[in-house]
Amino acid sequence: MKPIAKTTTYFSLALFLLFVISCSSSNGKDLEISNLNPNPVRFQFKLKSIPKELKGERIFYTLKFYSCPDIQAKDCYTPVSIKTHKATKPLQGLTDQMTFQESIPNQWTHLSIRLEGIEKVYGKYSPGHNPFWIQNSDSFLKNPYITHEFIFVSQENLIPDRKQEELASKFAPILVFHKDKKYLPTNIEKYADFFQPKEYTLPNKDIRRKSLGGTTWNYVEFPDLRESGKQTHLYYHVRYAKSTVSGTQDIALPGFRDNGNYWYDFGNGDMVISYWIWYDWNEGPTKFGNIHQGDLESYALLVSKEGKPKRILLTGHDHILLDTDFRNINSLKNHPILYVAKGNMGSDGGNPTSAYGGYTVKLHAGNALFNYISDPWDVFPSFDPENSILIIPRDLSEKDLTSVKIGPGIIDKPKQTSENSEDNQHSSTRYVDARKMIKQRIERLVAWEEPGWVGLPADKDPDGHHKVDPRLSSFFRFQGRLGKHPRSDLRIRELHQYGESPENAPFKTNVEQHYTFESPKSERSYSDREGNYGPKFIGNDSTPQK
User: Where is the signal peptide (predicted)?
Assistant: First the structure.
């Protein structure tokens, strides 16, 4: 063999061995970061406005690097690297800072930076997005230096209680039901003596298994009290429209939303009023299913800082059903007229709420076979004295319901030349005497207190306290499901689908995306198998009835 050939052969062999060693050293999920990037990246984190409760606590930062070019990938939520940096001394003042260098993996798409050791103030003071997310981009490659400030703010609601109550009362709903509706809205206070939290196993498809590593979730199982405590209470929460929940960064991986960590900003002064309506039972939309104990249906209003209604948003079936201008619905003295559906096949229904009556929507039951077997519908009542009943706010009198406008109101009443004349002009607007439709009233409005502040003295709250009814404090603090059916359960032998009991308000944000935090903001409506929940008319300033 010629010398040059020997040299080439040895050099090739050396390269091959180097390649094998390199591959073996990087084989595994926890990569050897120091071998991947010899040039460390500088990190600098600052804490500001540290709450006094954290004095003496030792905080630390956890860095998790993910490689998720496709967030639907099976192993997307497995970090390629985890690094933790602990503070060398306990927190003492209002500010703190940590600077360090760290090698990072060659291939990563998302970095989560979590501030830990702050459990004492969870739900009371927010440090902002936690974890805070950074995405690997060209700008990072040009300037590989990561800095972030965690600034603590109180999670108290800075709108005075009196103003919240005035707004909530002003826009409380007029609820319309079929006269044979079995389960009308009641209240959760009657379950106060039976509040015993339990745990259940999360379904395998639940994203919290991937994002948080959780295998269980919370629920409470109530006795069957459908025939008692039938007083209707309305639960509400008023906050500034410009509010944020941790985990809602555009670049955050899905499933990291933290409904206990949020903060409010005054913004332009617009406010959102969220309402929750409690039902003891959900039976529908067919006899086949979806059957479960407990139901929380909701709607929200966007109002100006002067208290003028701007938009309304309604949800149901895990969707935003309608988001539209307040003038596109009927209201009486600012009280929106809302219709609650029953189901078909003799079912009492799943209690979804619509701003329009007298129509149906055929729903998807999961697949073509279930659609054929159960054929689920939402059947919304009409505003009809013969076939419908009302639950109304306490401040409305029977006199107020003498002539209720139903329709856009833009076209006046039709001119009638004779009783049976073909010349009668059709109008989409009716005026209904609804006095005989009154079934009962909303007996009480209940403000939903910020969970972390329940029963504590105030810090920033202008009312100076966070006092609540002791019978409600457990509900306000509880994050989990309310009812004895915490997860879906298909029982073929019974031909029944037992659905999930509802997530407790105000922690329902992950499902229908508005319950406390998303503002009504744009024209949206949901369509299903046949039909939709969108506007049935377009109104103007003359549509709301004064």
Answer: 1-28
Task: Give residue limits of the domains in the chain.
Answer: 41-154, 161-407+430-482
* Strand bridging mode 216-220 / 481-482: parallel
> Both tokens of residue 193?
């003596």
Residue type, 79: P
How many residues would you count in the chain?
Answer: 546
Handedness of CA 299, 269, 237, 51 (dihedral sign): positive
Gyration radius from the chain CA atoms:
28
Beta bridge mates, 176: 339, 390
Q: Is 168 in contact with 447 (CB distance < 8 Å)? A: yes
Contact 454/473 with Cβ under 8 angstroms? yes
Alpha carbon of residue 169 to chain centroid = 23
Hey, what CATH class is 41-154 in? mainly beta
| Predicted model pTM | 0.87
Specify burial of residue 423 (Cβ count, 10 A radius: 0-12, 13-18, 19+): exposed
Q: Where are the beta strands (DSSP E) in 49-156?
A: 60-66, 81-86, 96-102, 110-116, 125-126, 132-135, 145-151, 153-154
Q: Are 355 and 192 in contact (CB under 8 A)?
A: no
Give the CA dihedral 533, 537, 541, 546, nearest 10 degrees. -80
Q: Give 267-307 pLDDT, tens digit per residue.
A: 999 999 999 999 999 998 988 888 999 999 999 999 999 99
Predicted local distance difference test score (pLDDT) of residue 411: 57
